[in-house]
Design brief:
- This protein is an alpha+beta fold.
- Helices cover 15% and strands 33% of the residues.
- It has eight helices and 25 strands.
- The strands form six sheets. Strands 1, 2, 3, 4 and 5 form a five-stranded mixed β-sheet that branches.
- A hairpin with a 5-residue loop joins β15 and β16.
- α1 packs antiparallel against α3.
- The chain is elongated.
- The termini are far apart.
- 25% of the residues are buried.
Length: 430
């Protein structure tokens, strides 16, 4: 169950100390002084302010102090002499910490009830033995003691009991029983656990043995969850968005050019295509609206391969004519049975079907009058013929990788290409 209600000062007299002597200047460098009842110079600042209960002027007292082995805090206390309303709260004088903090105190003796406690607005207070919890932001922050924290919870539960007894008597009786259990805790008849969990990291439970270790107190620092970040009003750092890479595979690019026949303005379409089990190629097509000329060309999307490629297909069925085919501009074609050979660069690059490439001799092959071999020989290694059994081997097709001859490298312009030590050759002569 949870409790909320009137805020009671945990340290009566701290915020109600007399106002400082007029004209007294604060000691330089000691704006936040360690809290001490013997420090006569440590006096609150009094500010006349509006009472939100009767809307007449009351008095707010601010005390800037430092908790030993903790950090600076601001204690604020308001009282109204007209209606008697008062309120006390504390605020951290620093920033929200990098990590949350959880204090787990095992209260074993009456002396533990006097431990100093700083509880901020964002802290959750739990007593597991009673299944009792004070949620975050249900009470204002307070500078108090363990006993004062329990008394504050009792006051919060008691304040609405008259209304509950009139409307919900059964619930009021259960809360009365629970209040009795809370009051029994103050006598420490048996040990109990007090947990203060603050995602802001600004709550505190005193270690009376500091700087030595306190066996009764466990302090745990943890990383906040995104929900806790949002609860504290912090904007979680969004993961750095990587710029989206333009996917050219789904785009048809267009650019202006001239028709190779009539030189009229024309438009060329270009698309990047991934051929399954092969590589990417660039298909370019031009259509002239003036003379009707059409051209298409295929460029390899990669560099010259280390080895040449010879692809031999045994054509045994008309369905072989539907195989996809990529003939680069460096590829030659042979059909030995017809003593047919198409030299390198005669038709340029083509991405078509076997039937499309063989349209001039299509009728002889399709009618099945003879079986033939179709050989593509590409020293640059950038040609392709579809394997209809992929990824298994095609029994009718043979793919060979071979070392290029000197003459083939000469045709490709590779013999005079220098890839090592060319920087030295570019050095200026002196």
């Amino acid at each position: 169950m949870s409790a909320s209600g009137a805020v009671e000062p945990g340290r009566p007299g701290v915020a109600a100390a007399p106002s400082p002597t007029p004209g007294r200047a604060p000691v330089p460098g000691r704006l936040f002084r360690p809290i001490s009842a013997e420090d006569e110079e440590q006096q609150p600042t009094e500010i006349e302010s509006l009472c939100m209960n009767c809307y007449r002027n009351g008095m707010t007292r601010l005390l800037l102090t430092k908790i030993p082995f903790f950090r600076e805090i601001i204690v604020s206390s308001f009282s109204c002499e007209h209606c008697g309303w008062n309120n006390t709260e504390i605020q951290s004088a620093g920033r929200i910490q990098d990590q949350g903090v959880r204090y787990t105190l095992t209260v074993r003796a009456p002396e533990d009830m006097n431990r100093e406690v700083v509880k901020t607005d964002s802290a959750t207070t739990r007593i597991p033995e009673l299944d009792f919890e004070i949620p975050a932001f249900s009470q204002k922050g307070a500078l108090t003691t363990v006993e004062g924290l329990i008394s504050r919870a009792i006051s919060g539960l008691e304040q609405d009991q008259p209304t509950r007894r009139a409307n919900e008597e059964a619930i009021a009786e259960r809360i009365d029983e629970f209040i009795v259990k809370l009051k029994e805790l103050k006598h420490v008849a048996s040990p109990f656990t007090l947990i203060i969990d603050d995602p802001s990291g600004n709550s505190f439970v005193e270690n009376p043995h500091a700087p030595q270790k306190d066996d009764a107190l466990v302090i745990t620092h943890y990383n906040r969850t995104p929900q806790q970040e949002g609860m504290l009003g912090l904007q979680a750092e969004a993961p750095e968005e990587k710029p989206e890479e333009e996917d050219l595979r789904n785009e048809v690019l267009q650019f202006n050019t001239n028709c190779p026949e009539c030189n009229a303005p024309a438009q060329t379409n270009m698309k990047l295509v991934q051929i399954p089990h092969f590589k990417e190629v660039i298909i370019m097509a031009t259509n002239c609206e003036y003379c009707g000329h059409r051209t298409n060309e295929v460029k390899s999307g990669g560099a010259v391969e280390p080895l040449g490629t010879r692809i031999s297909l045994h054509i045994t069925d008309p369905s072989d004519m539907t195989r996809d085919l990529l003939k680069s501009e460096t590829c030659s074609v042979e059909i030995p049975e017809l003593e047919f050979e198409l030299g390198m660069a005669v038709l340029g690059g083509k991405f078509t079907t076997l039937e499309g490439l063989l349209k001039d001799i299509r009728e002889l092959i399709i009618e099945g009058k003879m079986k033939a071999h179709f050989i593509m020989n590409d020293p640059a290694g950038n040609s392709y013929l579809q394997n209809v059994y992929a990824p298994e081997d095609d029994p009718e097709m043979k793919v060979e990788r071979y070392e290029r001859t000197f003459e083939q490298n000469e045709e490709l312009g590779l013999n005079d290409m220098r890839t090592e030590g060319y920087e030295a050759g570019l050095a200026p002569q002196r």
